[in-house]
């Protein structure tokens, strides 16, 4: 399942939803790597602080024996350094392996470094969608698109690292079919997708 | 048919108060007694009693705080006093209305009603209890079912003859009835028994029964007094006795849960009921069925029988026994009748395609390598537990694993049927599952690093309503290009066939 050379990441479209479904395979937004590094970095920092605190306590208390203390310190520092390096380099590798393609019929998402996968969801199978933005993503104007299907293993499919406007455009495209074919009973299911202010963490309307 | 009373809120049945209190108390009495026994007079007893009383009262409050009403398009369920919740469930989203009746509820002609929808693992709403007439009214309004077909939630309408045949409207045609003899055979292929044994063992461990020094010391000395060969024989006898006891428990469980099993077809719905103590009924509209699996354990194959499971959109993976009635579907069936029954259930799902396709030719080699690895790990584990003797276990594990791999590789197959896909797998227990393009929710093509080395990939077809233990269409060890083609094919099939009736599956 080797991916062909990745296409250049396109700018976030602000044109109507139909332009979203162009069948072009796109990378995630390049800022996604930065956010992933920051998120991983925070985790490593927390872990590092914990380990260092433990080491500090051990050194102050003078227990266990000096040799063991040195070994433990060296080990802990090595672990922190290793995790830090991983937190820095892995997001870039992962980013290269992630892409998505939106066609009129549906959406296809690829991901995975060692365990690689492609998932295809036909547009008619999308129950509803969420556009999710935490504080970190909001700072970088990114969002995660969560597609809900009626399946079980793939009940929610996440597509992170989208520019906010792109995510909104894709969401509108994916749920649009429902508005034309439903008979008014899908209000509950459409709500998270159609009304941005009900989705957690998103200010109504795109930022200027 | 919209009556004047459309917006009038309905309450639960008044007798639901004592029933709920009774059920809740019965659920808590076991743990409560356990706590009392373990606490042995400490302050915990009082706390436990307080908890039991409060919990029971809380359940009783449900009667006073729950209302439901019908609008033109949805049912609105309101509950709660302090934390109020109002849930709107559009009629079209309701997949099933299931009933659960314990013996008291059956006597009082009440039932616990569970409304299941496509999304979520738990029922959208549980109403405890409603009278059977209220249930019929609800089924009429929500599912649009005619009154006479659902009059008593499982019992045939009065005066309409056996199983409602001949009454005006939909007649009920019995498809399958199970006799106790068949239930015994079913119980001997244990699945559920494991859980009970696990619970008992866990309880015995917790209560330190296995550690009572006096008893175990005596047993140990008695054991050792026999000398090596006799002790081994005794161990074998005890193990055999344990297995027999385990099978008896399994058979008893099966009889209690599936006694009087009956599957009927009423028009476009399949109606199912079973249970000795707690009577369970379920109604499954045919079109809600997403996947059909035909399974056969070793024993079943020997007796030329199978069991059929269906996955329906609505109420997935519910661990409570209440929905096993629907998941079991047909627990025991002579293999010769499979085609006949499936023709009534979903003739468009093809579980016996004319030609099965094999997976990659290297499948067998790969599976055997995995078998060798697994048996090696198990042997090492056994050797770690029982130092010299454990290695001998390898002589058992290895041939068993290799045999399993050989058979599994032979059975593994898939088929692209007209409008759908079928998949066959297993060694001890074999299963065939089939579904159609319109029931496919998502298609996933994946490869592990090991797959990459062998130029293989696996394909999974995601359907609605699959439970955790169900057989799924998850085809491993496909050649990479074959997998990619099948993936494109099924994705296109899913795109081509819109979900009937809008977005809900079925």
Description:
The complex is a heterodimer of chains A (208) and B (506). In chain A, the strands form two sheets. Chain A has a four-stranded antiparallel β-sheet with strand order 1-2-3-4. Chain A has a three-stranded antiparallel β-sheet with strand order 5-6-7. Chain A is an alpha+beta fold. Chain A has helices at residues 31-61, 66-97, 135-139, 164-181, 187-194; strands at 25-27, 99-102, 106-111, 116-122, 126-132, 142-149, 156-163. The model of chain A is unreliable at 3-15 and 178-208 (pLDDT under 50). Chain A is 45% helix and 21% strand. In chain A, a hairpin with a 6-residue loop joins β6 and β7 (156-163). Chain B has 506 residues and is of the alpha+beta class. Chain B is 42% helix and 25% strand. Chain B has 15 helices and 21 strands. Chain B has helices spanning 16-39, 44-65, 103-108, 132-143, 180-187, 193-206, 213-224, 228-258, 298-302, 324-328, 338-345, 363-385, 394-411, 449-454, 480-496; strands at residues 10-11, 67-70, 74-79, 85-90, 94-101, 110-117, 125-131, 172-177, 262-266, 269-274, 279-285, 289-296, 305-312, 330-334, 357-358, 413-417, 420-426, 430-436, 440-447, 456-463, 474-479. A seven-stranded antiparallel β-sheet of chain B has the order 7-6-5-11-10-9-8, with helices on both faces. A seven-stranded antiparallel β-sheet of chain B has the order 14-13-12-18-17-16-15. A four-stranded antiparallel β-sheet of chain B has the order 1-2-3-4. Chain B starts with 9 loop residues before the first strand and ends in a 10-residue tail after the last helix. The relative contact order of chain B is 0.08. Mean pLDDT of chain B is 78; it is low at 148-170 and 315-322. Chains A and B meet through β4 and α5 of A and β19, β20 and α15 of B.
């Amino acid at each position: 399942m080797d991916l062909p050379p990745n296409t250049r990441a396109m700018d976030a479209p602000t044109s109507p939803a139909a332009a979203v479904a162009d069948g072009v395979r796109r990378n995630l937004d390049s800022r996604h790597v930065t956010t992933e590094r920051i998120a991983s970095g925070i985790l490593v920092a927390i872990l590092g602080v914990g380990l260092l605190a433990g080491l500090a306590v051990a050194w102050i208390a003078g227990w266990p024996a000096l040799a063991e203390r040195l070994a433990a310190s060296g080990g802990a520092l090595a672990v922190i350094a290793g995790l830090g390096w991983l937190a820095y380099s892995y997001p870039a590798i992962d980013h290269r392996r992630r892409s998505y393609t939106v066609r009129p019929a549906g959406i296809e998402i690829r991901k995975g470094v060692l365990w690689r996968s492609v998932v295809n969801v036909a547009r008619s199978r999308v129950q509803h969608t969420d556009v999710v933005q935490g504080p970190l993503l909001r700072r970088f104007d990114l969002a995660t698109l969560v597609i809900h299907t009626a399946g079980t293993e793939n009940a929610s499919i996440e597509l992170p690292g989208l520019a906010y406007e792109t995510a909104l455009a894709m969401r509108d495209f994916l749920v649009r079919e429902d508005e034309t074919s439903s008979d008014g009973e899908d209000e509950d299911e459409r709500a998270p997708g159609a009304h941005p202010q009900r989705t957690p963490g998103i200010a109504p309307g795109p930022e200027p | 048919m919209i009556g004047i009373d459309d917006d009038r809120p309905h309450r639960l049945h008044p007798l639901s108060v004592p029933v709920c209190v009774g059920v809740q108390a019965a659920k808590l009495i076991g743990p409560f007694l356990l706590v009392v026994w373990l606490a042995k007079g400490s302050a915990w007893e009082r706390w436990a009693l307080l908890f039991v009383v409060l919990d029971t009262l809380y359940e009783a409050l449900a009667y006073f705080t729950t209302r439901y009403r019908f609008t033109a398009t949805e049912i609105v369920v309101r509950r709660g006093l302090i934390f109020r919740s109002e849930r709107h469930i559009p009629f079209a989203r309701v997949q099933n209305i299931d009933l659960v009746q314990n013996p008291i509820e059956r006597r009082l002609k009440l039932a616990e009603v569970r409304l299941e929808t496509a999304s979520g693992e738990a029922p959208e709403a549980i109403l405890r209890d409603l009278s059977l007439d209220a249930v019929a009214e609800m089924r009429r309004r929500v599912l649009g079912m005619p009154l006479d077909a659902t009059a008593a939630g499982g019992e045939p309408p009065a005066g309409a003859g056996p199983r409602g045949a001949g009454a005006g409207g939909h007649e009920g045609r019995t498809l399958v009835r199970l006799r106790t003899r068949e239930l015994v055979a079913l119980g001997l292929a244990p699945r559920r028994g494991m859980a009970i044994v696990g619970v008992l063992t866990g309880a015995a461990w917790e209560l330190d029964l296995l550690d009572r020094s006096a008893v175990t010391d005596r047993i140990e000395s008695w054991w050792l007094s026999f000398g090596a060969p006799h002790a081994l024989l005794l161990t074998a006898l005890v193990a055999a006795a344990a297995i027999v006891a385990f099978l008896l428990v399994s058979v008893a469980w099966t009889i209690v849960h599936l006694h009087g099993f009956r599957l009927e077809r009423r028009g476009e719905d399949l109606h199912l009921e079973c249970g000795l103590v707690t009577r369970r009924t379920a109604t499954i509209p045919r079109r809600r069925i997403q996947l059909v699996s035909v399974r056969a354990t070793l024993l079943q194959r020997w007796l030329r029988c199978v069991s059929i499971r269906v996955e329906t959109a609505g109420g997935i993976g519910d661990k409570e026994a209440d929905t096993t009635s629907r998941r079991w579907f047909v627990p025991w069936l002579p293999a010769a009748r499979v085609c006949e029954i499936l023709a009534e259930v979903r003739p468009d799902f093809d579980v016996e395609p004319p030609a099965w396709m094999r997976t990659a030719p290297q499948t067998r080699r790969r599976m055997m390598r995995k078998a060798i690895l697994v048996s090696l790990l198990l042997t090492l584990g056994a050797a770690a537990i029982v130092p010299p003797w454990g290695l001998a276990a390898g002589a058992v594990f290895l041939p068993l694993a290799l045999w399993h791999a050989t058979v599994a590789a032979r059975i593994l197959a898939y088929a692209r049927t007209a409008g759908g896909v079928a998949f066959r797998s297993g060694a001890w227990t074999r299963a065939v599952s089939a579904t159609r393009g319109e029931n496919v929710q998502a298609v996933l093509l994946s490869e592990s690093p090991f797959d990459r080395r062998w130029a293989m990939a696996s394909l999974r077809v995601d359907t609605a309503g699959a439970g955790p233990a169900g057989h799924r269409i998850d085809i491993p060890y496909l050649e990479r290009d074959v997998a990619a083609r099948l993936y494109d094919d099924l994705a296109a099939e899913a795109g081509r066939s819109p979900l009937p009736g809008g977005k809900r599956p079925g």
